[in-house]
Amino acid sequence: MKIEPVNIFFSEDDEAFITTEIKKCLQRGQLSNGDHVEAFENEFATYTHSRYAIAMSCGTATIENTMRLLKVANKEVIVAANAFFSTALGPLLAGAKVCLADINPTTFAPSVEDLENAITENSVGVILVHMGGIVTPELPQIRRWCDEHNLWLFEDCAHAHGSLHEHQHAGTFGLAGGFSFFATKVITSGKEVCSLPMMKMLRQRRDSIGISGSRING
Ligand SMILES: Cc1ncc(COP(=O)(O)O)c(C=O)c1O
């Protein structure tokens, strides 16, 4: 059996809408940032019931930027062992050591016990991946365990647009969540990406890193 890797479909209505909006950008000469990105951020925040949504260049950048803001250099970040390479790359680029946590084969995510086996005195946080959009039912226990151990929780939601745990959107359980809008993802935008930081500090600091300080009060 031959399985096609991906077959991305745009309806005629979608095509007409996209080309009209792209034309507006070309006519205005604003090819990045601006109204469209702001509308995207606002709509994604509303959709996920998040306080903020922030567009970045790619899903990997949501992880790396958050890690830099959290000052993880020379610390340890626990990453689910079934993650995509980018999940570990974010903390590595920010200077952290990555400590892989095994997963529970029935949830595709680490259980609290797996995290217990991975934590050390240098651990500062946990990056979970909602692999294939599946949110582990143990998420509330994992969140509680992180709180008890003074660790932050970051959710890699590259596959999890619209994924829920008891009516709450993936990406809103921890400190922040990073989404990818790469061409093969659940929702694509070419390459624009969104992070859902739960803390205002992250939003303000990200603005100063993300667009070279040009949107520091944005
Ligand atoms: C689990 C996971 N995390 C992060 C990423 C990185 O996303 P991006 O390609 O937008 O940088 C991907 C991309 O495939 C992914 O699958």
UniProtKB/TrEMBL annotation:
InterPro entries: DegT/StrS_aminotransferase, PyrdxlP-dep_Trfase, PyrdxlP-dep_Trfase_major
Alphabetical GO biological process terms: polysaccharide biosynthetic process
Domain of life: Bacteria
Pfam families in the cross-refs: DegT_DnrJ_EryC1
Molecular function per GO: pyridoxal phosphate binding; transaminase activity
The protein's name: Aminotransferase DegT
Organism listed in the record: Dictyobacter kobayashii
Phylogenetic placement of the source organism: Bacteria, Bacillati, Chloroflexota, Ktedonobacteria, Ktedonobacterales
